[in-house]
Write a structure and sequence with these properties.
With 421 residues, this protein is α+β, with helices and mostly antiparallel strands. 22% of the residues lie in helices and 24% in strands.
């Protein structure tokens, strides 16, 4: 998995899949420590922009639902050659950080089997060789020299955002830190169903052995009520259950410790239970009006008991491990880069490939590198932009919802195999 759990983008995950610990009244956990700096809940005001029009496909695009299972990828959907990109890649910090992100992706990129059908491992050799020593001051020139653009399907992009939360936490339980952050239990087992039937290839389930039977693992309400307590599985303790809820949605984050230190934690599995989208649930019930992280958080804080009941309707729960070294780590197996990494569906975008976005919101416009995935990030031209940590990242990611066009940058020469006649 990636920086986020399989619920995917922040906004989409809240609508589709909220996985979190229980919401309890602040008074029940003692005096709450102050939130880390950057904990503000206000969304950044969008900067409007005019997106570049998508290209008319040479042939009508095929609906992914109409493709055979073994052709449900970018190559099956169809690609259209894009424009010359030399004038489309602005120089500056975004291009420089994108070059850094592309460079660290190369060792994996050149070995990885491309599910999208757009590239072969050897296609990347020249670009990766050049990237290793290319001056970052002329990063935009690197991309225009070694890549050409294609549009996948209709090219209509939808982009959300995610970030690395920073919340108050402690390695030990103490007054003010009462929300357990659990390690993955040893009895939680992943089963690859494809080993039992070809018709189930690519499908997995999670559960536990009970006697001679394989049964579902504990659901969220059971875990919140203490089904795992007393076993030494507590990795750490969070101060604020609402903040921890959002960290679980993201799947990775930072705990600001009482002594001023920082503990980084990352996704280490999920209990296998189905998600219930609390954002959609809350909106359908008239509890919130706008579909944003900020509105959901505000309601949960104002109605803690009701919030606990709502989240117990979602049976999913996320487990964590402590992270050390560089990170957070994305699905490509390399550290993700703030304002340079996007999550994408690997069936439609080669992981490690550059992506050029032109949207109706200015902040995410420019070049990114596909280094991550997410359960809510499905289909062609669906992206989730990573904004790092802190107040700015949280403000942008929490309200990010942008539409426009997307071009995928492929090594020069590889697109010739793919263009529609």
């Amino acid at each position: 998995m990636s920086l986020r759990h399989s619920g995917g983008a922040l906004l989409a995950a809240l609508m589709l899949s909220a996985c979190a610990g229980g919401v309890i009244p602040p008074s029940a956990s003692g005096p709450a420590p102050s939130r880390p700096s950057g904990g503000g809940e206000g969304a950044t005001r969008p900067v409007p922009a005019t997106p570049r029009p998508t290209l008319p496909p040479k042939l009508p695009t095929v609906s992914p639902d109409d493709l055979p299972t073994d052709q449900a990828n970018a190559a099956g959907l169809g690609v259209t050659p894009g424009p010359d990109i030399a004038s489309l890649i602005p120089s500056g910090e975004r291009a420089r950080t994108a070059l850094q992100a592309f460079r660290i992706s190369c060792p994996t990129l050149m070995k990885r089997t491309d599910q999208s059908g757009l590239t072969r491992g050897s296609d990347w050799n020249s670009a990766c060789s050049a990237a290793s020593s290319w001056p970052e001051a002329t990063a935009a020139e690197f991309f225009s020299r070694y890549f050409e653009a294609v549009q996948v399907g209709e090219g209509k992009a939808f982009v959300t955002g995610y970030y690395e939360p920073e919340i108050a936490g402690s390695r030990t339980r103490q007054p003010g830190y009462q929300v357990p952050i659990y390690r993955r239990p040893a009895e939680l087992i992943d089963v690859n169903l494809g080993l039992f039937s070809d018709s189930l290839k690519g499908r997995t389930i999670r559960g536990k052995v009970q006697g001679s039977n394989f049964v579902p693992f504990d659901e969220r309400s059971q875990i919140v009520d203490g089904s795992l307590s007393g076993r030494g599985l507590e990795l750490a303790w969070a101060a604020d259950p609402v903040e921890f809820f959002f960290l679980q949605v993201q799947g990775s984050g930072r705990l600001t410790l009482p002594d001023g230190g920082v503990m980084r934690i990352g996704y280490d599995g999920q209990n296998g239970r189905d998600y219930t989208g609390i954002g959609k649930l809350m909106k359908d019930r008239g509890l919130i009006q706008a579909e944003s992280m900020q509105d959901i958080m505000q309601y949960l804080r104002a109605h803690p008991a009701e919030g606990a009941a709502i989240m117990n309707e979602n049976k999913s729960f996320v487990f964590f491990r402590e992270l050390t070294g560089a990170g957070p780590i994305g699905a490509l197996g390399v550290p993700v880069t703030a304002e340079a990494t996007v999550a994408a569906d690997p069936k439609y975008i080669p992981l490690g490939a550059p992506v050029l976005l032109s949207l109706d919101r200015a902040e995410p416009n420019g070049i990114w590198i596909a280094q991550d995935t997410g359960g809510a990030i499905k289909g062609a031209n669906r992206f989730d932009s990573f904004w790092g940590a802190g107040a700015r990242a949280r403000g942008i990611a929490g309200g990010m919802s942008a539409r426009g066009s997307a071009l995928i940058l492929l090594p020069i020469g590889s697109a010739a195999r793919l263009a529609r006649p």
